[in-house]
Amino acid sequence: MKSEKKYSFRQLMNDLHLWLGIGSSIVLFIVCLTGTIYTFKSEIQSMMAPEMYKLTEVKDEVLPINELKEFVESSYQGKVQRVSIANQKDKPYMFSVGFKDKEKKNETVYLNPYTKEVVGSGKGPGDEFFMTVFKLHRWLLLESEIGRPIVGVATLIFVFLSISGLILWFPKKIKGWKSFKPGFKIKFNAKWKRINHDLHNTLGFYTLLIVVIMSLTGLCWSFEWYKDGLSKVLGTKVFGGRNEAKPESTFVDSKTITLAEALDIANKELPFVARNISISIPKDSIGSYEINKNDLVRFNESATDRVFIDQYSGSVLKKEVFADKTVGEKISASIKPLHLGDIYGKFSKTIYFIVCLIATTLPVTGIFIWLNKMKKSPSKKV
């Protein structure tokens, strides 16, 4: 009699990969599909309402920023809290307006800086749809306390599936380069079972790195313990900006510098052409101007430099340059753009879209592989 074969590590990985994949397949399919849709959110919104996001009337010079601010405040009877300026000439300025009435929500105003024409306000036509996609991606449309951990556990499983999938991708017996060749290509002229296997195996290999990055960054929104642990590893608080203690202005009198003056000071401190500029205006008598700029020549579109400016004296209270940050601080600041895929603009968005689309198919092709194996009846010896 032949002795029974030992239960190998590869068999263990295969079984765990199979059953954990089946158990999490529906959740992972939903999360990956919604992630695919959400990747080009801003571009889709622009297509749905081009008049709101792209100007048709453009002149040589924009109107003074102070004049635009006063126009928005008088038109909406509120206070401008934030201004966003894009480098493109055909992009409107975005003004976030707050109101004394706390029951009234902030209003986003899209303004033509050449003519003072309001080209749009409030939510875009696709906002409600994308909010539903967002809730489905994060919480499966359940209560966040229920949906968040479910998505989190499925994401942890996805990380394991990626690692175990890489282990199973390696050939059982390695005999030079020829052993690896089948794992790099899809044999489209084979039967559909083989094609399905290659789609799962090969495409899973090619998307592995991005899938792991998306998963590991996504876990920061699912588990506090994970976010806190990552903060310790990086040496800086992940999402620390949410409760950040910002520099305060030293109150002198009621005379303050203007928005234009604050912007001029920031441009002298950060003397480069910006891809985009965002200006947060002081909310009270001790608040300071916060101005963020992203260098146009910088490939990383999420890396911003910023300055805090005293609203009375105009002195620079604090200056942060992205290039001067530690590696941990840079990674921490890039968690969100790394997860969303917009860290390198349309270049990385396109890659993420393709990867998310492929990741959406992996649970499907994996289920078919399992069904095909179930159909095989074991041979019996008489």
Automatic annotation (TrEMBL):
Gene source species: Myroides marinus
Domain of life: Bacteria
Bilayer-crossing regions: 16-40, 150-170, 203-226, 350-371
Entry keywords, A to Z: Membrane, Transmembrane, Transmembrane helix
Pfam families with a match to the protein in the record: PepSY (PF03413), PepSY_TM (PF03929)
Name used for this protein in its record: Sulfite reductase
InterPro entries documented for this protein: PepSY, PepSY-ass_TM
Domain PepSY: 257-320
Cross-referenced PANTHER family: BLL7967 PROTEIN (PTHR34219:SF3), IRON-REGULATED INNER MEMBRANE PROTEIN-RELATED (PTHR34219)
